[in-house]
Amino acid sequence: MTTLALxxxxxxxxxxxxxxxxxxxxxxxxxxPFAAWLAFDVLGLQAGSHLGEAIAFFLYDVxxxxxxxxxxxxxxxxxxxxxxxxxxxxxxxxxxxxxxxVGAAGLGIVTPFCSCSAVPLFxxxxxxxxxxxxxxxxxxxSPMVNEVALVLLWGLFGPGIAAVYMVAGLTVxxxxxxxxxxxxxxxxxxxxxxxxxxxxxxxxxxxxxxxxRVRDAWTYTKDLVRRILPYILVGIGIGxxxxxxxxxxxxxxxxxxxxxxxxPLVVLIAIPLYSNAAxxxxxxxxxxxxxxxxxxxxxxMMAMTAISVPEFIILKKVIKTPLIAVFATIVTIGILxxxxxxxxxxx
Length: 347
Known about the structure:
347 residues; 16 helices; mainly alpha; globular; single chain
């Protein structure tokens, strides 16, 4: 096939990509008026009523969050395609504690794994010879500071809040990794995990065309959205309830800047819960809208994604209770400090 013929075969593909971008843009700007029309004109709900505002919030946030995920995560995934797990483990193996922890926390942003991936990730890192502290820096950063959280925070609240969250999360991950590394708690890792060290097979990198990368990114994004959609809908539902029915005075009394115990209180509330970052964003949006302090809200989001009971249950398969306790303590202290710090800086 000639070069001209090959180029012609690519034209329909890229025209489809262009049409998808145009459709995404139109849908983004149409989401707000469509939600208002559907809630108040079609359903006949009263603007300003508790139920009307809750339903309008839900109808607006569902397409808005899904559009952010489908659009921007696809782009970020294209970039992340150059950082497969083998490269991540290879980049972290053999580094010092500080450089490794910083690198691991940074890589956690572009390699978003949820808590359910903690066991295979932990085993893979140990197998590759990555130090324990560096491994924990990645495990803290990846579920808490990933592209999904940053994309949604940026889209809903602007770059300032997104940057604050990223810096705060990276700080917790780096410090947590360094402290765990200095404590030398390798004896609290299950023996069968250490037995796997150095047994990993050789890896190879496939050469992908731009079309292949776009298709793979879109496939990954669709799978991601399908897996986290229940969390998103539940999160938006809770956010809609808070937005429409929960009195502003109650939220301010619990989590406002006037309550000195607000940060530890919301962390305690979050620990028994679990959600990925995408599921917490609508709740965060509603809480901020009701007057909860920014630092308190960020602490709630971090605790729900990084120190939840379900994650500890999963990690118990590869590490022993003392190491889990140290991990939880360090991350909790970091989250509390960040919550109070940003409450002080912003208010």
